[in-house]
Amino acid sequence: MQGGFYGNALRAASAKGHEQIVRLLLDKGADINAQGGFYGNALRAASFEGHEQIIVRLLLDKGADVNAQGGFYGNALYAASYGGHEQIVRLLL
C-alpha cells in the first residue's frame, strides 16, 4: 500500500529506525527499492535520519539500490550528507 508522508510501511519503519519491523517487512516481500513519499525509498529515509548501524546496513545487505534517484533528497548519499551523517556517507561511498 502506498500513500502518505512516508509512502509505505517499509519507508516509515526505516525512517524511524524500527529494525524488527524493517526485517519483518523485508521477510514478507516488501519492495526494498519502491519509490514514493517524501524520502523516495527506504534507504534514503534511513540515510537522512542517521540509522547507520541498524537500518542502512540491513537495507544494503538486502540489496537496496544505493544509486536510486527520487524523493526530496535525490539519492541516499545526498540525504546522508544533508543530514550530516558522516559514517553513512562513508558507508554509501
From TrEMBL:
PROSITE patterns: ANK_REP_REGION, ANK_REPEAT. Pfam families: Ank_2. Keywords: ANK repeat, Repeat. The keyword Zinc does not apply. ANK repeats lie at residues 8-37, 41-71. The keyword 4Fe-4S does not apply. SMART domains: ANK. This is Ankyrin.
